[in-house]
């Protein structure tokens, strides 16, 4: 279609009225065909202009709620609706030349897969994780073997000794991540505030912020409604997200952390001013061994999503190259969780 219009524009001065009519007829047919394809899609498609005004909605998107979408940014979120029936939608936004394309996918059935399907998926995940670990441990083992040879020649070689220590620590991290993904511990849910694990995490990481001159802007309300949480597991979630932010930003960077709530959920938002991610990177963000980091495994975010899910919540990410990344966690207020279980 793009090539067609470029060709017409290039030769428009040479086209007479008859040829222009013919080209207009062809263009009309092409547009009608594309509209037919979009209308036949099972996924909902909505297009917004730069002012947030809707310019197109296909048949599958008619009747869908108007969610609060980050127009102009690439994102991938999950939204739950309870009326007229309970459904869960995965919504992806893709910015393109002054417009934002929103793709809606009903993932309700996926969320209610049978135990057999879950077991089958778990077996495949374990196989993928094992293959990834086998690959990941190769480099540090090779580095250790090489430096041990150097140490044998010169037992006082402190640099080689330190490299071995660093690589052993890296191996330990890979194996611990693998075991955590392979043998997840069920959360011990108790009433509490999301502010408590966050404060514990920030206290633990304080030296890293000071060492790198990182500014942490904290927005905490005076009081938050309780949620059902495992404090140690939620602390791991916050640690993983802050660690990701630290790896994404330069020294002197900024991390904004906000806790808030509405009538149904308590929210935790983590925003950094790093390089951000492309839409392609965002799609695979929570998949193991699909990471943007040179030495990363992707297990941290996979474990993070699992913990949040076991708390009855969801985690989503919004990012744009050059504009940093925003992670949003939402956990149901304890009275809403109890009501839902009934």
Polypeptide structure, described:
This protein is an alpha+beta fold and 342 residues long. The chain has helices at residues 2-11, 17-40, 108-111, 115-136, 138-153, 158-182, 195-204, 206-211, 231-248, 279-283, 299-310, 334-341, and strands spanning 44-49, 54-57, 74-81, 87-96, 99-106, 190-192, 215-219, 227-229, 254-261, 265-272, 314-319, 325-332. A hairpin with a 5-residue loop joins strand 11 (314-319) and strand 12.
Give me a quick take on this structure.
By secondary structure, the protein is α+β, with helices and mostly antiparallel strands.
Which class best fits the helix and strand makeup?
alpha+beta
Strand order of the largest sheet: 2-1-5-4-3-11-12-10-9-7
- List how many beta strands DSSP finds: 12
Mean pLDDT: 78
Subunit organisation of the chains: single chain
Estimated share of beta-strand residues: 15-25%
Helix content: 40-55%
Q: Provide the succession of SSEs.
A: HHEEEEEHHHHEHHEEHEEHHEEH
CA distance, first residue to last residue: 54 Å
- Count helical runs: 12
């Amino acid at each position: 279609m793009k090539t067609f219009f470029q060709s017409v524009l290039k030769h428009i001065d040479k086209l007479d009225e008859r040829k222009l009519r013919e080209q207009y007829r062809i263009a009309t047919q092409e547009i009608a065909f594309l509209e037919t394809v979009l209308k036949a899609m099972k996924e909902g498609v909505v297009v917004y202009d730069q002012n947030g005004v809707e310019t197109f909605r296909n048949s599958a998107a008619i009747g869908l709620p108007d969610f609060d979408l980050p127009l102009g940014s690439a994102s991938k979120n999950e939204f739950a609706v309870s009326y007229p029936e309970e459904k869960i939608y995965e919504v992806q936004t893709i910015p393109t030349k002054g417009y934002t394309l929103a793709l809606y996918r009903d993932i309700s059935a996926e969320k209610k897969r049978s135990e057999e399907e879950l077991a089958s998926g778990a077996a495949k995940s374990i196989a993928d994780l094992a293959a990834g670990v086998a690959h990941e441990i190769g480099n540090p083992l090779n580095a250790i073997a090489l430096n041990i040879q150097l140490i044998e020649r010169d037992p006082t070689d402190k640099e080689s000794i330190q490299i071995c220590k660093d690589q052993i620590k890296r191996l330990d991290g890979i194996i611990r991540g693998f075991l955590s993904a392979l043998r997840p511990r069920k959360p011990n849910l108790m009433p509490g505030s999301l502010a408590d694990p966050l404060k514990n995490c920030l206290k633990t990481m304080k030296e890293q912020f000071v060492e790198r001159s990182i500014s942490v802007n904290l927005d905490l309300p005076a009081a938050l409604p309780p949620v059902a949480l495992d404090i140690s597991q939620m602390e791991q979630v916050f640690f993983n997200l802050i660690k990701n932010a630290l790896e994404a930003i330069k020294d002197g960077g900024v991390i904004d952390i906000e806790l808030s709530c509405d009538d149904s959920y308590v929210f935790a938002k983590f925003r950094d001013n790093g390089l951000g991610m492309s839409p392609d990177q965002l799609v695979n963000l929570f998949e193991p061994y699909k990471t943007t980091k040179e030495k990363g495994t992707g297990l941290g975010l996979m474990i993070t999503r699992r913990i949040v899910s076991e708390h009855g919540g969801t985690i989503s990410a919004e990012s744009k190259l050059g504009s940093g990344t925003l992670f949003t966690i939402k956990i149901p207020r304890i009275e809403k969780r109890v009501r839902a279980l009934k």
